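Same chain as my last thread, 244 residues:
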Amino acid sequence: MTHAHHLNPPQLLELMDSKRYGAEFQPIVTTAGEEIIAYEGLSRFYTVGGEAIRPDLVYASLHDNPLSLFQVEYEQKKLQLAYAPNNTDIFVNLDQDSYSASGMLDGNNPFVKLFKSYHKANVIVELIENSELSDAVMSLSMIDNLAKNKINTAIDDLFNPQSMLSTSVVQMVDYIKLDKYVIEKRHSKNFMPLVNAMITYAHETGKKVILEGVETEQDLQFAKQIGADLVQGFLYKKWFKNVT
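reply #2:
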């Protein structure tokens, strides 16, 4: 496992050149009947020796070079869609910087074209809420373009302490994914009214709520109690091993 905050340029170039990429799929399950209705495709990367490299380290390193970021993200999305389970919706993360790096912000955007070409089921694009205003502005532009092209969207990691809440972004998405931090803070009398208000808002406006980080039966009961529609986490086994 790599422990630095970034990969150095030779490591990054070698990884991109050899394309030691993988995909993993986590089930998204209904709270009511515990049925799998979708999977989230996750990026995976490996060293020459087959050890996992943390995806956040790879992407942090790539942010210094937008075209390389676009290239790796695009290859990852192709891999995730190619190996996605049949007949269930697939959630995929898409970084605003990856989306904008191609310079095409309309229906010709390579990611939009890729998602529209996927016919096995619906693709739901997850936007990561970041801490910079410029990201929120780009998110709005990206969601708007995805919506025009009839692609559903979700906001990821809502209520993560390090993310910024854009009320405009929340209004535009179809799914709201609550960060696992919500489970950690379930007993907070100051925090939970805010979470409950967001869930009420989501349901009143036709959005679905997904609680992440569900690892135990108690977590599942909590998800039911707060009215989450769907859950995701280690309580449910991954669909299959890494694809490399």
